[in-house]
Amino acid sequence: MASMVFSDCSTSATARLGPFQKRISGQAFQLRTLVSFPWRPTNRFLVHSTSSRFRSSSTIASAMSTDTAAKIIDGKSVAKQIRDEIAGDIVKLKNATGIVPGLAVILVGSRKDSQTYVRNKKKACEAVGIMSYEANLPEDSTEEEVIKSITGFNNDPSVHGILVQLPLPRHMNEENILNSVGIEKDVDGFHPLNIGRLSMQGRDPLFVPCTPKGCMELLHRYGVEIKGKRAVVIGRSNIVGMPAALLLQRENATVSIVHSYTKNPEEITRQADIVISAVGVANLVRGSWIKPGAVVIDVGINPVDDAESPKGYRLVGDVCYEEACKVASAITPVPGGVGPMTIAMLLSNTLSSAKRIHNFQ
Ligand SMILES: NC(=O)C1=CN([C@@H]2O[C@H](COP(=O)(O)OP(=O)(O)OC[C@H]3O[C@@H](n4cnc5c(N)ncnc54)[C@H](OP(=O)(O)O)[C@@H]3O)[C@@H](O)[C@H]2O)C=CC1
Ligand SMILES: Nc1nc(=O)c2c([nH]1)NC[C@@H]1CN(c3ccc(C(=O)N[C@@H](CCC(=O)O)C(=O)O)cc3)C=[N+]21
């Protein structure tokens, strides 16, 4: 259900606030006077400014210390570029080996949002030349039936990646189901062996979870320095927050994790050069939470009522965009930020899997 919309971000949806958190209301946010983050846009992407989409990089650099508008990290266009690269690689793989990468998606139940996500993944696969396979199981399926479907895809040589759409119906044990995905086809990177390797020094997972991988890819492609920087990840879920924190740490950031029991999340977040927010609460992160010049990656996808939209709602992130724009040096929009990157990383993981299984460099 969509929550109330507050166009000025003056109130966030409080339903999921943790026990120690107070709502922050009407607090004035700091205006940026000095940008401390060394913003270095690469030439690979045009960096759009919220105030002028067509400035040159040098203008952007000189504007950093005085301007009040963050640069938009354009996930939609980066994702398109990655999809184009993947499509080219798939043609090469097919011409050299005859192999076509295949992704199987298992959807249990009939949640509208999950059906939409699965449909979008299927379309994205078709567009780059990945074969997509789908198993739709009824809501009242047993755990054994889901595992049987996964086992079928584990044993199917035309399938190189398996994704079990989450959330699963409540009566199912998510752990048992995700454990049954073959580690070499675990393109979501949710298998405990993959997560375990991600968390260990000197080990590498076969796959990195798509959303955090997409966040890192955005930081890399926009030339954001990570080593030695302070990063705060808000949220610690298995699928986003926790692996995002591990990835930042692997690249030598100093990482803090803010969760629903964190006291004074605002103060902790304000220390960060890089903020990744993955909570699911609209407008939780106010401008006052952001250190001037920080880079903000907003993973949250939250529907809010909007009578002017044909659907009656629109999507916003966890971060109060209008406020954060005035403080951050760069920020991802919602939609058009991390979301498209998640899908691009899923395609990328599926292609890597096909290459690895068939020993293609
Ligand atoms: N753009 C994309 O591609 C994707 C977007 N999403 C979106 O990202 C958001 C998070 O998803 P997901 O990780 O699956 O969500 P979960 O509900 O699994 O996790 C939410 C996390 O946020 C923490 N949290 C909840 N309330 C607060 C609060 N008030 N202050 C600080 N931390 C809080 C929780 O803490 P605790 O652990 O203490 O409960 C938990 O760790 C959602 O909006 C989801 O739709 C998700 C996947 C992909
Ligand atoms: N096994 C599994 N793997 C997942 O990766 C997974 C999942 N289950 N369950 C649900 C979440 C959510 N998720 C999103 C993917 C793309 C967008 C996306 O493309 N969003 C668009 C907007 C889409 C719209 O307009 O509806 C955007 O942000 O621009 C959003 C969210 C993946 N998830």
Strand order of the largest sheet: 1-2-12-9-8-6-7
CATH architecture of the domain at 48-73 and 210-341: 3-Layer(aba) Sandwich
Structural class assignment: alpha/beta
The amount of helix comes to 25-40%
Terminal-residue CA separation: 46 Å
Query: Which kinds of small molecule does this entry bind, naming each only once?
Result: NADPH dihydro-nicotinamide-adenine-dinucleotide phosphate, 5,10-Methenyltetrahydrofolate
Strand content: 5-15%
Relevant CATH superfamily of the domain at 48-73 and 210-341? NAD(P)-binding Rossmann-like Domain
The CATH C-level name of the domain at 48-73 and 210-341 is Alpha Beta
Report the total helices: 11
Helix and strand pattern:
EHEHEHEHEHHHEHEHEEEEHEH
Q: What is the general shape?
A: globular
Mean pLDDT: 86
Pick out the low-confidence regions. 1-7, 12-66
For this structure, the CATH topology of the domain at 48-73 and 210-341 is: Rossmann fold
Main beta-sheet strand count, sense and barrel state = 7 strands, mixed
- Compute the gyration radius: what is it? 21 Å
How many E strands? 12
GO biological process, one term: photorespiration
Domain Tetrahydrofolate dehydrogenase/cyclohydrolase catalytic: 73-188
InterPro entries: Aminoacid_DH-like_N_sf, NAD(P)-bd_dom_sf, THF_DH/CycHdrlase, THF_DH/CycHdrlase_cat_dom, THF_DH/CycHdrlase_CS, THF_DH/CycHdrlase_NAD-bd_dom
Family: Belongs to the tetrahydrofolate dehydrogenase/cyclohydrolase family.
